[in-house]
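Internal tracking record. Fields below are filled automatically when a chain is submitted to the structure queue. Please do not edit lines marked as system-generated. If the sequence contains nonstandard residues, flag them in the REMARKS field before resubmitting.
Queue: standard
Priority: normal
Entity type: single polypeptide chain
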Amino acid sequence: MLDRGQIVLNNFMKPIKTLFEQKSVPKEPWSDEQIEFLLRTLSNMDTDKDSNAARVGEREARIASKLHLQTSAGFCHGVGRSGFLTAPQPKAPGGSIMYEISNYLARDILRSYGLPNIKEAIVVPLCTGMSLSLTLGALRPDGDKKYSSRKKTVLIPQVDHKSLLKSIELMGLKTKIIKGKIFGDAVRIPTEDIETNIDNDCYAIISITSFFPPREPDNIKEISKLAQEKDLVHIIINAYGVQSPEWMKLIRSAIDAGRVDAIIQSTDKNFLTPVGGSLIASPTKENIIKISQTYAGRASATPVVNFLISMLSLGINGYQKLIEEQQQNRKLLEEKLSIVAKNLNERILEIYNPVAVALSLENLKEEHLFAIGGALYNLRVTGPRVYNPKESAFGTCCENYPTPYIVMNAAIGSKKEDIVSAVERFEKAYKQITLK
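SYSTEM-GENERATED OUTPUT FOLLOWS
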């Protein structure tokens, strides 16, 4: 009986043993019980669980309620040391192991899904915008060590997103925005326009993969060549791009062709975690070390744990299935919206985007354009974006975009029924407001 029980126990423990041996995302998903066992075992190694310890420091992972243990998965000490995010924490041996294994999985998932040419990746308990601030600060050239003599300008091909603009301002840097131009339905930023805006005060350039239509991804390969030629730090914002093999291919070719210093992607948008984390990757290991050493203070373990849970609960097979579903749903979304467009005498805008679809709203009056978003909200449809040319152009990434439109996404984690229901309710909302 004991031997039989040992077989069951060994089978339960085998994935955990394999994880520490291979340091890669498991092929098959783990059970919730296996994940919980791993997290509880590691968190119980931290010194705040030592009932005989004499804890006299100012930061000893003291907590007011046992609920804190649940929300942090037991890692109350957080991760890293003050001033070095990836450094082992003596008070948290279990948390340090958890963080190190999470970073291995971050690198592995990015390599497995399009970026085999990165050298290092880390999970950062910051949103994408704050991660950009951290990266800009870490990779800034020292100059002669005097702040006043450092270069202060960051080039950014126009991307109408306040978080990214705020992240640059937060570092006390100047933003030089290269205006978007309209090419048919699409908005792009020509590389030659970027080059002509480079001056002696520029030290970095940001490029974008994933964004909402009508904005298309930047020509990242050519920007990487330009960054190499002009000795500019090049950071790619790949916010929700891991889910798209097409966007990841753009980054891979850019790394091979020129200079890429860091790639930043969101954990919640790509890996179905709660909001609050990102992955920062680089083809240069030294860049990740610099970024880790720029983080001020210790960090919350919760966003790291959330990423680890996603990787173990999905596994490679589960994540691959999600990507395949995303591709099918993107195709379905365009098919369904094309039918609706024909019925409403509208059209699908011709814009390259592997996740989102934009549909014209040229037959709606201005009051209808104002009403369509609210009507969809009342019909319990979340996420669509409506553009009215007579309101703010922010979001189009250019000036005077002429066509009113609505954008819907078929992002990773969406279900077929979400797509079908959203399109049906959009058509219903369209007809409701036009018949009033």
